[in-house]
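ENTRY TYPE: paired fold submission
RECORD: A
CONTENT: sequence, then structure tokens
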Amino acid sequence: MTELAIGEIVLIFFKAVAVLNLCSIAVAAFRVRRRGVTALQPHPDPVSVVIPCRGIEAFSIETLNAAFALDYPAYELIFCVADAEDPIVPLIRRTIGESPGIPTRLLIGDDHISDNPKLNNCAKGWNAARHDWVVLADSNVLMPRDYIQHLLSGWRQTSGLVCSPPIGGRATGFWALVECAFLNTLQARWQYAAEASGLGFAQGKSMLWRRPMLNAEGAIGALAREIAEDAAATKVVRGMGRHVHLVDQPFVQPLGRRSLAEIWSRQIRWARLRRVTFALYFAPEILSSALVPALGVGFGLAAVGFNPAASLLAGMGILAVTYAAESMLGAAKGWQTSWWMPFALLTRDVLIPVVWIAAWFGVKVVWQGQAMKVRRRAEGTESPFLA
């Protein structure tokens, strides 16, 4: 095969990748509604909201108060803490005392059903829930007043689970904007694109379950079949012949200030978990960096005879168009943006290939302060972790 033919193949491939990235932005723009556009009526059924907590975070008071301020007529809150000495316990008790009208329980203890500390913390809450609709919600989700309505409105006849991607907000400083660039106009929009293609997958920040449905599959213990509970949830739901569906107005996770080290730790953990649980889907993730198709198109043009300056300008044009589309998506949906966002997007796209490569060649992750190694589950083994 001649150099010219190789250049043409490279050019066609990376043009297709660039178009695919733009199509995913268009899907998210169509699928996601700006918050406040729709008003939903409460569902008639009561709901249990299980919230695993560990430690005090920057927005703990605000997220706790939001959970007690939901505009839903019949819901209970179940807070789960593994350690009685955790500093979040007094704060939860105080907030419960200030909101006597909401049925609330604080459960303390660690039920070891897996090597996933979050799932262990949730188990007692799932078992104690009184209602058939159960939400597993991370403690750092800033719940809007219509939080439950939006989850329930996402349920369809074919649903096995409804969840929401986390949308980064309240970002302080450049690195927090980089985290927004990862969460919002990259990971969230690809999650909506996957749902639209029939390959919806779970995100553990907010998960609405129909309790009898999951109990028939082994209850919350079924989510211990994979390293991360959201990966297990995806496979359990697909095993039912059902689908993971998403809310049309995703919920905010307030970020505050972030550092490069924190972003690297989170992204490498998530990437290694995805690589272990869904290797075939993880493999093309490197192409989600707009920098990769931009460089690929530039190389392809140079290989087919374009001069270097024109090739460079074409690559820069792909970056400019993609970042403009991402910025318009974020602005249209009311997600946090800034004049610094193009630099945050470029920084993210430089990091994506580095994280992708590190995910293939490393096994260590840090999860809730616990260092672990990840591997694929071997046949007949109980645990996907090597401590």
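RECORD: B
CONTENT: sequence, then structure tokens
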Amino acid sequence: MHPQILRSNPFMQYTKITFQTTDPDLLLALLHDLPFDSFEETPDALLAYLPSADYTPSVKQEIIAIQERISFTFEVAVIPYQNWNAIWESNFTPIRVKDFCGIRADFHPEFDPPVSHTISIQPKMAFGTGHHATTWMMIDAMQTLNFEGKKVLDYGCGTGILAILAAKLGATPIDAVDIEPPAVDNTKEHLILNQTPNIAVYEGTLDQLAKKHYEIILANINRNVILDSLPSLYQQLKPNGHLLISGFIQPDTDLLKTSTLNQGFTIEQIYSKDKWICMVLNKK
């Protein structure tokens, strides 16, 4: 896993935390909700990066609290100013989700053997490039649904990959929303790059779209946001519609099962990859 820098300023000062653990996959999942911009696995350690201004005492305390769930040690170091965008671009590799979908930068060759759908991205940002298991599973799950002519919401759109794939699968109209301004900008850039103009991009939360209803909702965020949003997602999903959720780890599966069933959803499919989970839900 290569560094995936999220911020719009490529030259900001970063802090690197080096974690020593016997279970880097589980630790990575537990760190997912903290404000890290990127992770890198080496043979000896898990490296985590975040802007130095974001490494606050509360973040340190949350890391210490995680030590109650898994054994690890960590060291903190401030690293010199670097052009993170250039580093990320040099490390970016294409992603292939079976023969269904491929994600690549313009400087990469076409996929061989070919895939059914190709998405082009600018690898200067990384709000969900497909490298992460949750994005990979969401894409894999999308091929099981019929998007043709369906109204779709990409909730927490990041780079816009899922919304763009929905457009390539025939969905229309499509809304995409994210709370992070750089994610919104990155999504808009990718809409142009992929020639998918039928996607409306919003900066904010579900509240801005409260009066809209969808036949398919894609939500690759994190456990807490999904749990908090379930009532709104259920309300905004049309009868017989599908909700795809990811961003939570295997130990949270029972909690998500109970919460979604109590909300009124039925569970059609559960995917698992690298200790992460994706669910395909239906509203009867």
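NOTES ON RECORD B: The first strand starts at residue 14 and ends at 21. The domain at 14-87 is CATH 3.30.70.980 (Alpha-Beta Plaits).
STATUS: closed
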